[in-house]
Amino acid sequence: MSYKNFEELTKVVKTSGKKCVVVAAAQDAHALKAIFRASDEGILDYILVGKTEEILFLAKELGYSVAKERIVKAEDTKQAACQAVELIRQGTGDFLMKGKLETETLLRQVVNKENGIGLGGLMCHMALIEVPSYPKLLGLTDSGMVINPDYGQKKEILKKGIGFFHKIGVSCPKVSCLAAVEKVNAKMPETEDGAALKEEALKGEFGECYVEGPISCDLTFSREAAKAKNYKSPVTGDVDLLLVPNMVTGNIIGKILTCLAGAKMAGCVLGAKVPIVLTSRGSSFEEKYNSLILCAAWTGRN
């Protein structure tokens, strides 16, 4: 199955039982608004780690009263990150969310070898995008963590991306290993990587999926372009996941779609014991809410 939009994904999440998000430095109005909405809808419980008075003030401004047992006091962002990660490590919460703190501060605690929740491997970013002109939710990786991945890193990113789609119920995701052209060119490493990843997929390396590569953007989305070039692939016009050659490409694609095409976005970090909602400070309430839904969908199928 696939999901047409975030509304459809949300309906499925509502049937899978409440999950609990732990928020590090929860004194963030947009994050709290998103959490309270998900709580009202019966999707989430929450634990808010941070400055108690600020959290209570913001909650009141939003029209909510938060029980004190849902708040864990932390004097600064480092302490908030430590305590939030520890709560996840103890199994108190199902996934983690970044509040009002620097990404580096949170991730440093996540990957702490003694008290963290890292798995020792690569961590990467998964974006899920609802594009008005496309018939289903579209995955994009890696658009926020690994700057210039080599082949081995791309293989890990792809494995995590396909595993993500399996987790949310897409049994056979179709993947496009994006490049400027669809033919292998030694001067374009992403074309060689795309071809090699396709071979790995055909050998069963990533489980149930179909990986195409290298493949250009027009052949990924346009059946007319594919027909004109006599190019045949089950991915054309039906792709679930875009594997980009580097973070810059992924970042640009995501921002063009949201800024110019009216797309909605959600995102999380994969590669720890639980997914992490790691939106930027400029992210909207809607993006934070959709990211909560995304992580709830992932944990709901454990």
Give a nutshell description of this structure.
This protein is an alpha/beta fold and 302 residues long. Helices cover 40% and strands 18% of the residues. It is globular and about 65 Å long.
Describe this structure in words.
- The chain has 302 residues and is of the alpha/beta class.
- Helices cover 40% and strands 18% of the residues.
- It is built from eleven helices and eleven strands.
- The protein has a six-stranded mixed β-sheet with strand order 8-7-9-6-5-10, sandwiched between helices. It has a five-stranded parallel β-sheet with strand order 3-2-1-4-11, sandwiched between helices.
- Helix 2 (29-40) links the parallel strand 1 (19-24) and strand 2.
List keywords for this structure.
about 300 residues, five-stranded parallel β-sheet, 11 helices, alpha/beta, six-stranded mixed β-sheet, globular
Helicity, in percent? 40-55%
Mean pLDDT over the full residue set: 95
What is the chain-wise order of helices and strands?
HEHEHEHEHEEHEHEHHEHEEH
Radius of gyration, whole Å: 20 Å
In whole angstroms, the N-to-C terminal distance is 17 Å
Poorly predicted ranges: none
Number of strands: 11
Instruction: Categorize the overall geometry.
Output: globular
Strand content: 15-25%
